């Protein structure tokens, strides 16, 4: 049984008067008619026609694309009434929305509670005052703490979203934001490397050379450390990096930390670090070279062939779901070990008893 499915309802930035430096939603919204209740119902029916409660444990209706609690209260209630009707019928199990920290107060939360909302995500982006100011977020860090405290007090599931590489940001600031998020105590989080999109103030800064985006390598390095901080604290990181469908501007991303498989880049790096730590602990100084040559991946293993003298043979194991991360995006981990350790034989195998994200080295 599939554990989770989402019915996405895209709400334009009708309720967001702010002009964040990285966002072009207001220009897009001006060209896009508001989502009608009929549109919403048609989307729900289209998704529900392919889903059933016997096949999926939890179906969420999730409002994306805007600051939901910033739209007029009457319109919020109209959208939520439709979602609550589906929930009351048992067709969906949860209602999920995203908003800004400065669009949270007791009146808003009372309304969301009345309509059965379960999950509230806040677009935090950073907990550094300079980054918030340079990004024209329109609120300070204290607003994030107050809104999060209220959401937790009301019993909603809290999610926080962070961006990496905004103007004024540094590796150290991003890591500090991640640690402060742990202190807030959300259940879920998202990590988004900054992507430059046309028709934004950030694009203009990039064009003049005032802003330099992170390289993919730098974005992966920082995101990896943030991911580990959050997951070790029990926070479920439900997304890393933008999907191509998030780039709704017809010209898409310009540059920055965008990669279509960014999450796998991060998880492959984590796998590589785990494997290398175990490998070096098991090799003597003159043996710390491994040659890897991948063969048939149709089996639950990838075998390594040797060239030159071999001193030791090792096997790495992971769950089936983590196998591609073990080998690396585009076989990056294989290539890394091949270049750095050319004299030991390694093979990669699946062990279905292992939890996802755990990589174990065994000598043979």
The number of E-state strands comes to 13
Gyration radius (Cα, Å) is: 23 Å
Name the beta content range. 15-25%
> What is the N-to-C order of secondary-structure elements (H for helix, E for strand)?
EHHEHEHEHHEHEEHHEEHEEHHEE
Structural class: alpha/beta
- In whole angstroms, the N-to-C terminal distance is 36 Å
What is the overall shape?
Answer: globular
Number of helices: 12
Largest sheet: 7 strands, parallel
Low-confidence stretches: 288-298, 304-310
Overall pLDDT score: 87
Share of helix among residues? 25-40%
Strand order of the largest sheet: 1-2-3-4-5-6-8
Give the secondary structure arrangement, pairings included.
Blueprint: E1 2-10, H1 25-31, H2 37-48, E2 56-64, H3 73-88, E3 94-99, H4 106-114, E4 119-125, H5 129-134, H6 141-153, E5 157-164, H7 171-184, E6 188-193, E7 195-197, H8 201-208, H9 216-232, E8 236-240, E9 253-256, H10 262-282, E10 301-302, E11 313-318, H11 323-327, H12 332-340, E12 345-350, E13 360-363
Parallel strand pairs: 1-2, 2-3, 3-4, 4-5, 5-6, 6-8, 11-12
Antiparallel strand pairs: 7-9, 10-12, 11-13
Helix pairs in contact: 7-9, 9-10
């Amino acid at each position: 049984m599939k554990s989770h499915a989402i019915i996405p309802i895209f709400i334009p930035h009708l309720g967001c008067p702010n002009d964040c430096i990285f966002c072009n939603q207001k220009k897009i919204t001006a060209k896009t008619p508001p989502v009608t209740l009929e549109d919403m119902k048609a989307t729900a029916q289209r998704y529900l026609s392919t889903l059933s409660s016997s096949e999926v444990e939890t179906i969420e209706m999730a409002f994306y694309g805007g600051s939901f609690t910033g739209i007029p209260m009457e319109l919020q209630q109209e959208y939520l009434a439709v979602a609550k009707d589906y929930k009351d019928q048992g067709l969906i199990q949860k209602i999920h929305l995203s908003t800004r920290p400065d669009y949270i107060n007791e009146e808003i939360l009372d309304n969301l509670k009345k309509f059965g909302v379960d999950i509230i995500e806040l677009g935090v982006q950073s907990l550094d005052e300079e980054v918030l100011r340079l990004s024209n977020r329109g609120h300070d860090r204290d607003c994030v703490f107050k809104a999060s405290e209220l959401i937790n007090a009301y019993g909603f599931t809290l999610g926080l979203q962070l961006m990496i590489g905004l103007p004024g940001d540094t590796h150290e600031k991003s890591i500090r934001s991640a640690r402060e998020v742990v202190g807030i105590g959300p259940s879920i989080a998202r990590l988004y490397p900054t992507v430059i999109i046309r028709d934004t103030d950030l694009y203009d800064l990039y064009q003049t050379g005032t802003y330099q985006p992170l390289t993919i390598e730098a974005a992966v390095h920082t995101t990896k450390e943030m991911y580990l901080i959050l997951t070790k604290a029990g926070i479920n990181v439900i997304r890393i990096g933008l999907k191509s469908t998030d780039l709704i501007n017809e010209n898409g991303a310009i540059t920055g930390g965008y990669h279509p498989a960014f999450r796998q880049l991060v998880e492959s790096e984590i796998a590589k670090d785990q494997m290398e730590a175990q490998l070096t602990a098991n090799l003597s100084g003159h043996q710390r070279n491994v040659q890897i040559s991948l063969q048939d991946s149709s089996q639950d293993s990838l075998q390594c062939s040797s060239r030159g003298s071999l001193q030791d043979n090792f096997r790495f194991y992971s769950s089936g779901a983590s196998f591609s991360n073990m080998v690396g995006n585009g076989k990056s981990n294989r290539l890394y070990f091949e270049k750095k350790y050319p004299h030991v034989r390694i093979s990669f195998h699946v062990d279905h008893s292992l939890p996802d994200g755990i990589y174990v080295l065994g000598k043979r």
